[in-house]
Structures are given as C-alpha cells and as structure tokens.
Specification:
- The chain is α/β, with parallel strands linked by helices.
- A hairpin with a 2-residue loop joins strand 5 and strand 6.
- Helix 10 packs antiparallel against helix 12, helix 11 packs across helix 12 and helix 11 packs antiparallel against helix 13.
- It has a 6-stranded mixed β-sheet, with helices on both faces. The protein has a 3-stranded mixed β-sheet with strand order 4-6-5.
C-alpha cells in the first residue's frame, strides 16, 4: 500500500512473504536495467515510524558487547556506558527488538538485522527501531564500515533520516545521526521504501483454518492457557525456544519448563504445529 513521505519518497507497507534475496539477485542480473542502490532497496525493510515513536529503544539499558568499548566483558556482563548501567549482549537483543517492532524474523532466510547508523555498543541505538533494517546478507555487507559501498551506505542512512527524523522526529537524534543530504527520490526513481509490518490478523485464522477441520483451535488454545494460568508472553517465549529462535529470558527455570510443557500440550490437544501456535500467541495481548 503506497503512502507518501513528506512528498519526498514513497513508502510501501509490506505484509507479504519477504522475497528470496538470491532469487532477486538472479533476476536482476538476468534482466539488468537497474542500479545497485535500487537492487538493495528492493530487499531492504524498515520499521514503521509510528512503532518507533511509541517505543525507542525497545530494550533500554542493553548494549552490544565490544572489545573496544567494553574490553574483556562478554555477553551477560554488566557495564557502564558513561554513567548509564548496561547489560551486554550479542546481536540477539536487536533481533528481538526487530521482531517486536515488525512481527517478522525468519531464520535461514538470507536476511539479517543491521544497524543503520552503527554504534550498537551505545544503548541509545542498540535496539532502537530507527537504527534497524532487515537486509539480505549480500546487501548488508555493503553498509558495513569494513568494506562499504559509500553510496549504498549513505542511501540507507538517508532513508532512515527521512523516515524517522525529517519533519516529525520519532525522538531526538543522537550525536552519531545526521542528514547525509542525498536526493533519495532521484536515486530510487519512484521505487518505494519498504516498511515491514505484522501480517494482518486474518493470517492467523488462515493458518488455523487450513488445519482445523472445523474445530475452533484458537478457543482450545485459550482454554488451555486459562486452565494452566499461563501468560501469553511466556507462551511466546516457549514457542520461540522450541523453534530454535532467540527469545526474551524467562523469569525462572521453573517458569521456562512449565511454559514449554504448556506449548507441547497445546500441540497435542489442537493438532497445530509450532508455527501456527506462534502466530496465535503473537496475536494476543501480553
């Protein structure tokens, strides 16, 4: 669904399956007639500015470990950023933030979460939606300081500036964020920026409907959840753990084990797979 962005560049709210980055590369090489920047933006997804405005950073007080900024400290360690206490992580907390902002994260997809402006060791930007983009690995490497493509790197930053800080800023821009001053509309030539948003609520009923054979499995899931006094939040974590995905920590080991048992019971009693259950959990309030 195209919408305008300050009359500068179009946006497209993207709810379908993310395109295969390898298939895209193959098609672009075959067809030609495009630019590297446009090819990158064809597979690059941003967070909705409204979602960022509602909450940023997503996980305050967390930062990515860094040999330079947090020497000799590893994931899980406590540290200080200036005078601010922080808990160190690898990139998993940024991935969790992306999933919470967009409802999307797929392992083995050829995509990864990138920090547009870098500085993940700064808790201001580590899990901030304005600093996150979902990009194919081949495109993401072009934005890294180790081997950047300067125009691609600047264009991604320009898109983030236009989305999050031009006109109605989502927050005060930190010192490491500025306006690259690129004419993005000219570079993209009418190609929209892609905003990753959660699939429509009907997607859950479609998933369930394909498996339900007339049984209201959502009602069964809710009944089991109520009977076992389980929270939707812990059920989401348990489903992600069983799927082998990153998840927020459980409060205690007993809560973790209990939640895993609840999800397994739901699978047995409803006949639903983990993906369908996870979709139901994601559609419920905490």
């Amino acid at each position: 669904m195209p919408i305008s962005l300050n009359e500068v560049v179009e946006l497209c709210l993207f709810v379908g399956d993310f395109p295969s980055p390898i298939a895209t590369l193959e098609r672009l090489f075959s067809e030609g007639g495009t630019t590297l920047v446009r090819a990158v933006f064809e597979n690059t997804f941003f967070v909705s500015p409204d979602a960022v405005r509602a909450r940023t950073p997503y996980f305050p007080g967390h930062a990515r470990k860094s040999r330079e900024h947090y020497p000799k400290l590893d994931k899980g360690a406590s540290a200080l950023w200036g005078h601010q206490p922080v808990k160190l992580d690898d990139n998993s907390r940024a991935q969790m933030a992306w999933k919470q902002y967009t409802g999307r994260l797929a392992r083995g997809s050829g995509y990864g979460v990138r920090h547009i402006w870098g500085n993940p060791w700064d808790p201001t930007g580590f899990t901030a939606g304005w600093n996150l983009a979902y990009m194919p690995f081949w495109a993401g490497m072009l934005t890294e300081d180790q081997h950047p493509h300067p125009l691609v790197q600047s264009a991604i930053k320009q898109a983030a500036w236009d989305l999050f800080f031009r006109g109605d800023p989502v927050c005060d821009a930190p010192g490491f964020v500025d306006n690259p001053g690129i004419d993005l509309d000219e570079l993209l030539d009418g190609q929209p920026l892609l905003i990753a948003v959660p699939p429509p609520a009907t997607a859950v009923s479609v998933i369930v409907g394909q498996l339900a054979d007339g049984v209201d499995q959502i009602a069964v899931v809710k009944e089991i959840r109520s009977r076992r006094n389980a929270s939707w939040s812990n059920l989401r974590k348990a489903a992600r753990k069983l799927q082998g995905l990153d998840h927020e920590p459980f409060g205690t080991k007993n809560v973790e084990n209990g939640s895993l048992g609840h999800v397994r019971s739901m699978m047995r009693e409803t006949g639903l797979g983990l993906d369908a259950l996870a979709a139901i959990f994601d559609g419920q309030a905490s």
